[in-house]
Specification:
- The protein contains ten helices and no strands.
- About 6% of the residues have low confidence.
- Helix 1 packs antiparallel against helix 3, helix 6 packs across helix 9 and helix 6 packs antiparallel against helix 10.
- The chain is elongated.
- The chain is an all-alpha fold.
Amino acid sequence: MASWYFSNEFNNSLIFKDEEDVERRKRLSNAALTKLLNVWIKGDKIKRKTKLKLYRSLVKSILVYNCGTWALTKSEEEKLNAFHRKQLRKVLNIKYPVKITNSSLYNKCEEHPLSIYILENRWRLFGHILRRNIEIPANKSMNSYFATHGKKFRGRPLTTLPVVLNKDLSRLQENTLQLTTREDLEHLRCIAQNRQQWRELSTRIRKAAEAPPSDD
């Protein structure tokens, strides 16, 4: 996985190496989760709502920090979803042999698959960048990407943010939007200037991506 070809560190996140950033986020969030172990195992003394509030503010916030920059494959998204569910089970102190379906777990925790949260952040960040000055580094990186997009390279194509964003758009029915050329980018930039239109587009993309979780 790779993003827009960034090569600098930003807020302690290695956004030019998504694999390292994701694995680091998982380690840091698990460390935070473990520090609160006494909170999770005292199920009768602490309300579920309170525990989930603590999880979101002290653990999940670490896990998803900077997630809007990640370019993830489907397999990587599923692994993150499974990792997130494992953390939720610990928060609810659900241990073997007790079983709970994925859908029931999400309902109990009032959560969604982490991939949906990442998608929302991806489009929120994308819209924010498109509304910024064309000369900022992020916009220059996007323009540079599409300037070289037509060139052929050896090996399997990278999963980049433009590829992931275009896949998001491809889920929409009766849709003419895509992100494969500089012209597509400029068209989306025009839409982003109207925040209401951008929110509506992001909502449509989210709804298209949502599906009942598998009960593995």
